[in-house]
Each structure stands twice: as structure tokens, then as C-alpha cells.
Here is the input.
Amino acid sequence: MTYRYRLQDLFALVQPKADAAKTLVADYRRVQHGLLSVGLKIHCLDNGQQFRRLIEGLGGAAEILEINRYRDDRASMCLVLPPVGSASSAIHLIECIERFTGSRLFANRQIQLQLCSPGRLSSWASALLGISFYLGSDTLRRYTQADLRTTFSSDYTHARGMRLVLYDAEGDFDRDFVWWNQQGLCEPELPFQNGRTDLLIGSGSRLDIQNINLVATLLVHLEYNGYWRALGEQFKVEMESLLERHILKGLLTAPWVRESSAQIGDDDRFFAALQELVAYAYGESIRVKQRRGLWFGTWRDIPARSPNGILEEMHSLLSKYRRLLETRSPLVAQGGQPA
Here is the structure.
């Protein structure tokens, strides 16, 4: 993630119009319950005029935007936000920017969010992350391959393919966030040099940020021997069981993230798996919004086939693990560290 400004500069700029910035100044590096830190990228599909004052206040386009070659292929700009310690801080940061710009960033189809989590997950874990995000969201989405195309999709040096989940360790990497290790000791920095796993949320919500942060934490702690390793293994088993019950476990073998060993046709194989997931989720949805067609600007609700389908199960599973992290978190009175 490449940026040439401090988060304190952003706070100073937005604080006069956003009271929440005062809380962020005090807590933005605080880690909650051993969850991972959160980075964000904002891809703007319109002309980006709402961000003009913000960009100028931080140093101008040359310093803030033009140093980044990476963005959604349809976007006029990509604003990289420095990482913060928690999903709640990330949400408050976006809300502060919304207040400053006077423009909605959540649930805005012209704004595509990307969440960046430290730690490079395996292909299997990346599949679990992508599927969990999709099924756990409060908005069901249909995709075209254009929705997943970035300026690095086919770049020879930084090829990422057309994916929901991306490996991206280019630019700056902030390790100075607390890591809860397997022994329950608090280490002052993350155990990764520069590895990161990103997820293209698209038109996102607060719940999306919370869910991705939760699942990424469980899977990263599982693969990097963190404090929540056992809980991550339990989540993996339950998630695989959920997919098996719905005859979807085969989706985990699709290339959800582009690896160095990528083969010709992997983009299409991933997209076919994503489309299968989308079709299944829509078929079992309780109430979802669906575009009526290109000629109509309205939306309609689809009646559910089953009130106890995969979406409800996924939401229940995520709620369960959110409670487990909170109830099993051995916090001490100060610092938010394991005992």
C-alpha cells in the first residue's frame, strides 16, 4: 500500500467536520481481541470530484494518487488509506471521510472498497475467505469479469488476475500492530515482512468490513500459529461442513487467488466457481435486491425458497465466532493484550 501522508494529517483535515475523528486519534492503533489490523483502498468509478478537497489537503494528486498505478480498471482514482488497528476504527475512518466530503462511501455503487489484511493466506484459506465474505454480506451481488479487473490484472510484473481475493504486498507495509502469538503473549509487531491478502468488496458495508476482518483473523492465526489458531481450525472445519451440506465444497478447489503457478484459463475457472456460488445464494435468498434490467432503475425483492438456507447458516456461523472471540479473549485492564 503506497501513500505519502500520515494518518494524523488526515485526522487533522477531517476533524473539524467529523467528531468521530477525536476517538480515532486516540484509538486508531488499538487492536481489539487479537483481530488483525485493517487497510483500505477506495476505488472511485465516477470523476472523483467529491475527493478533490481531501486530496489537495493531503498534498495533492501527485503525492496522493499518481504514485499508485494500481486501481479498479474502471476507476478514475484509488485512494489508499493508512492501516488502522481494528475494523471499528476502519469504519469510523470511512465515516469521517463521508462527513468531510459530504458523499456516501458505504453502499454506493460508484465507490468500490478493498480491504487489506496482513498475512498471505494459502489458496485454500483464500477460497474460504472469499466465500465467507460473499455468503456473509448483507448485500448479494452479481458479478461480471469487468467488476474484478484491475490495472494489475494482466500486468507482467504484478499480475493479480481477475479475482475477489488478491495477493498484494507492493508498496509500504506497516508491521507496527500488536500480534497475539500462540503462547498468549503480546508481540509488538506483526510476524509478516510484507505479505498481505486483499479482498475486493465492491459496493460495501460496515458488516462486510467486520466479517472480512473476523474471518481473515481466524485463518491467518490458523496458518501462522497465532493465539486464535484452534478457533481458526474449528471455523475451517465448520465452514467446510457447511459447504459440503450444500454440495458446494468443490468450489474450494477453484483458483480463488492468483498464485505464481497460475495457468492459462484460471481466471475463467475462478469466475465459473464464483458464478455457481452466486446462483446458489440467490436461489436460497430470503429477501435480496436484484436489478430488474438495464432499462429499469428500480429494484425488487425475491421471495425465499427456504428460510433456513446457506445465507442464514453463514450469518449464524459468523455471529457465533464473533461471540467466541469476545468471550474467550483474555484481556487485561490496559493495552488490550492477552493475559
Notes: The longest strand covers residues 77-84. The beta strands are 38-44, 77-84, 111-118, 165-167, 179-180, 186-187, 196-202, 289-291, 299-301. The chain is about 35% helix and 15% strand. The two ends are 32 Å apart (CA to CA).
